[in-house]
Specification:
180 residues; alpha/beta
């Protein structure tokens, strides 16, 4: 998007990811504003300050996702586009080889000691499952109008080989300002 003249802002919890974003921007010859921050808090942006918000599949690191949708709605201008990548619960029900169903839903390591131990062993951060109702209706509750949906697989592994869709991308638009 920077090639089209966009001003790009990146927000990430990880200082290492921020460093990586800056290195890539320098290598590719574009500038970005990179901020270290927590998406579970009020975002450090004014109301209606962005035309597009891209939310990669990071909901899995947050227990309660409604705040993220509310904040994306707040910082988008009227007519702004919200693009979100969302994992579904299928990734969380199976074992590491994707052969057996081993976890009950919702997958929440803060409420299940076995799930917490598994996350610690995997060294992949604390992750939480979110069903599609929570994620798609969450966007609607925030005020968005969903205009498109795309499903895809993990891109590798047994679930991919069986063409089981484990991710959904949504495109939503802020058509009006929210009435509280």
């Amino acid at each position: 998007m920077y090639h089209l003249g966009a001003e790009c802002t990146v927000l990430d919890y990880s200082s290492k990811q921020i460093e990586s974003e800056i290195l890539v921007a320098e290598r590719e010859g574009y500038s970005i504003k990179a901020l270290e921050g927590d998406m579970t808090k009020i975002l450090p942006f004014e109301n209606e300050s962005f035309d597009i918000v891209f939310h990669p599949g990071s909901n899995c690191y947050v227990e309660d996702v409604q705040h993220i949708f509310n904040e994306a709605y707040r910082v988008l201008k009227k007519g702004g586009i919200f693009l979100a990548a969302l994992g579904n619960e299928i990734n969380y029900i199976v074992d590491s080889e994707e052969k057996e169903i081993v976890w009950k839903m919702p997958f929440n390591p803060l409420k299940d000691e076995a799930a917490k131990a598994f996350m610690m062993d995997e060294d992949c951060g604390m992750q939480f499952s979110h069903d599609m109702t929570e994620q798609m209706v969450g966007q609607l509750k925030a005020g968005f109008t969903l205009v498109d949906i795309y499903e895809d697989t993990n891109g590798f592994g047994r679930l991919h080989e069986l063409n089981i869709k484990t991710y959904i991308a949504t495109k939503a638009i802020k058509l009006r300002n929210r009435i509280n």
